[in-house]
Fold this protein.
Amino acid sequence: MKTKTWTVITNTGKQADLESGLEKREVRKPTHISARDFVHWLAPESRIDDDSLRSLFKL
């Protein structure tokens, strides 16, 4: 299975909006990290792949 790369459109500190081609996705901040860390991991205009996104929730 090919790993998708997502582009971060916005990140409010509570939720990030991601886009990969025509597909869009909303990601809510995990409860175990701070809003500041969430914004750091998913900074607007950054790119993140599915594996990195999964690891964010498993920290």
The chain has a mean pLDDT of 92.
